[in-house]
Amino acid sequence: MDFLFIEVISKPLWLWLLFMGIVVALMVFDLGLLHKDNHEIGVAESLKLSAFYITIAILFGGYIWWAWSSGTLVTSDGTNPVASYFQGYIIEKVLSIDNVFVISLIFSYFAIPRQYQYRALVWGIIGVIILRGIMIAIGAELVSNYSWMTLVFAAFLAFTGIKMLVVKEGDTDVSKNPMVKLVSRFMNVTKDLHGQKFFVRQPHPVTNKKVLFATPLFVALVVINFADVIFAVDSVPAIFLITTDTFVVYTANIMAILGLRALYFALAALVYRFHYLKYALALVLVFIGLKGFYSFFLGKFDPYLSLAITIGIIAGGIFYSLWKTRNATADTPHST
Predict the structure, then answer these.
(1) Residue 122 needs a FRET pair 20 to 30 A away by CA distance; which of 46, 56, 104, 234 works?
(2) 136 burial via Cβ count (<10 Å: 0-12, 13-18, 19+)
(3) Quick check: pTM over 0.85?
């Protein structure tokens, strides 16, 4: 059993296997037991599921605290993994809320019924695990070999935050998404859905031979994963400015994304109530960017103070948004 203690990216193999085992168990439980009948998920069930995933994330954070305090877990950069994990988790969670509107547009564009949306979202986790892993590995390699990359990340985040504060967002046109055109060009795509299937065999309109066709549900899945890569351009640099420990970065990212799939249906129905949260998120990105400059030139910023400031800004944004939209409905236009 010595191979379990082989170091993989500065952590023993058993620690990575433990985390991936948790992820696989959650997906099997979710797909195989909770939603094998593809029923439509309501807001109440969505909130209950989200509470379950948040509890799992907190318990895993508790394990990180225990492992760190007992000396079992040592971060590669000497940072406090507990504060870093929870700060990264919160930032990724809030950034993910911004994804909900785009995901909702994608499902609407492809006319995906609600009873099939959850299965598509859960299967999308597999793509996210792989894609985020690749992006985090690239980020870790860059930061490890070029310390000045933290300044690039810091400047990028500060610029992104300021841009979010002053530039009005444009409308998202799913039909112009490059992945829609790419899949349609290289694959046969059916016009109609075929239940929960991603692929079906049916006669080709020209040859009349049965060939493999992708369904709109599969195309929607591809576009959602592509959208996640775009959003990861913000979240991955943000958490690397909190900690460069790859294990903490990856686990915080994946735990937040696992919960997003459960929370999606509640957020999709109530997203208009969080209209002003993006400004709090913008301030957090500016803060993390400035903290990156501080840490590079002056030394480490207190991790618990950083976590407290992040929670304070996000909490303030949530309460202000809920108060400001207390009389609003989903069709109420917002002024900024």
Answers:
(1) 234
(2) buried
(3) no
